[in-house]
Design brief:
binds pyridoxal-5'-phosphate; 40% helix; alpha/beta; Aspartate Aminotransferase, domain 2; globular; 398 residues; Aspartate Aminotransferase, domain 1
Length: 398
């Protein structure tokens, strides 16, 4: 019988997508479902973005384009990085891809040999591990509990780095916890990292979604010597409400950008002209839609925390960014809901979907089975209703 390559036995579809699809399926069957499962921003970009796309269509060349990305798009992104306080990168340091996911895959593909050690703080974004598994990496998990606000401490990093460590995965603000590292915390991690010759993959795609004036601080700002090992990942998906347009970026040492350009040449050639023009307009045009959404999400975050504080036994470190909260739900394990024993996070999320029609993602999908992720970008009226249902669900535990 003809078979697949052995690496495919390690590949699996995104667990988050599966749950989101299940929620959609139930809704299509007529069930009253509120989905807090998928991390989509749920807003559309400003008119200028659509106008740029229409203009590009008018002048479409219909031809293949640059493997790196057109200069106008590269410059628009470099401008946005500079506005965020990260400067000193040129076109030779950057490349585009089909969303941050593709760029991440390109970078990991370029760096990882089977058996290489990769440090991953948990909870982590599910796809990191999906990608690393396919590539045969040895994943080393660094557990960051709710008590430490899900943030990695420098001493954990120091204890985990070995001569075999190749890559450290860092995501700030974090999906799934919404945690944001302070300037001091970033400086402390940078001071440890600078002692080691390892690649640092900094996934910054939520950098514009930060609340409470904490600000976004970066490892390369804290320690410029890290520039030769930090790889910055970014995307228009979350910042501009454009996840379906599929544009992502990488910045780093020239060899990294060049590797991504080569892999683009091998696998995709280029992003479409219309998409490039829309992305450039989003990055360099007015930022008011993003700012407005950030304020709105911060107010929603408050509502989520207020609601969770009314649930006996639940703890939820205060998220300062992205649009997620990650409460610890282990108080419910072993208890019963309408006669069903809730053995673990998956059982809790399943019972919640079955009984009150709310879809959340079990923490085990992110490497932390004591938690559950809620993404609060749903339609406005759904948030109070969904939160009330969650409160009711946990209020019914025996
Ligand atoms: N990185 C993180 C932390 C994410 O949460 C996501 C999407 O959810 C991505 C990367 C992928 O983003 P993109 O839509 O640009 O592929």
């Amino acid at each position: 019988m003809l078979t697949l390559a052995p690496r495919m036995s390690r590949a699996q579809p995104s667990a988050i997508m599966e749950i989101a699809l299940n929620a959609k399926r139930l809704a299509a069957q007529g069930r009253d479902i509120i989905s807090f499962s998928i991390g989509v921003p749920n807003f559309l970009p400003g008119d200028h973005v659509y106008q740029a796309a229409r203009d590009a269509l008018e002048h479409d060349s219909g031809q293949y384009g640059s493997n790196r990305g057109p200069e106008a798009l590269l410059d628009a992104w470099l401008g946005s990085l500079e506005r965020a306080g990260v400067s000193g990168y040129g076109r030779e340091n950057v490349a585009t891809g089909v969303g941050a996911k593709h760029v991440l895959f390109n970078v990991l593909y370029a760096l990882i040999e089977e058996g290489d050690e990769v440090l991953i703080p948990t909870p982590y974004w599910t796809s990191y591990v999906d990608m690393l598994d396919v590539l045969g990496a040895k994943n080393v998990f660094l557990p960051c509990s709710a008590e430490q606000s899900y943030k990695l401490r420098p001493e954990q990093l120091a204890a985990a780095i070995t001569p075999k460590t190749r890559v450290f995965m860092f995501n700030n603000p974090s999906n799934p916890t919404g945690m944001v590292y302070t300037k001091e915390e970033i400086a402390a991690l940078a001071a440890e990292l600078v002692k080691h010759d390892i690649w640092i993959l900094s996934d910054d795609i939520y950098r514009e979604m930060i609340y409470d004036g904490i600000g976004w601080h970066h490892l390369v700002q804290a320690e410029p010597k890290l520039r030769d090992r930090v790889i910055i990942i970014d995307s228009i998906s979350k910042t501009y409400g454009m996840p379906g347009w599929r544009v992502g970026f990488v910045a780093g040492p020239e060899i990294i950008a060049k590797a991504c350009v080569t892999l683009n040449s091998t696998a995709i050639t280029n992003l479409p002209e219309v998409v490039n023009a829309a992305a450039a307009a989003a990055l360099s045009g007015p930022q008011d839609v993003t700012r407005g959404k950030c304020e709105e999400f911060s107010a929603r975050r408050d509502k989520v925390l207020e609601s969770f504080s009314r649930i006996d036994g639940m703890t939820c470190p205060r998220p300062h960014g992205a649009f997620y909260a990650f409460p610890n739900i282990s108080f419910a394990f072993g208890r019963k809901h309408r006669g069903v024993v809730l053995t673990d996070d998956v059982a809790v999320c399943k019972a919640m979907l079955d009984s009150v029609g709310v879809a959340c993602v079990p923490g085990s999908a992110f490497g932390d089975p004591e938690g559950m992720r809620i993404s609060y970008t749903c339609k406005e009226h759904e948030l109070p209703d969904g939160l009330a249902r969650i409160e009711r669900f946990f209020g019914e535990l025996d």
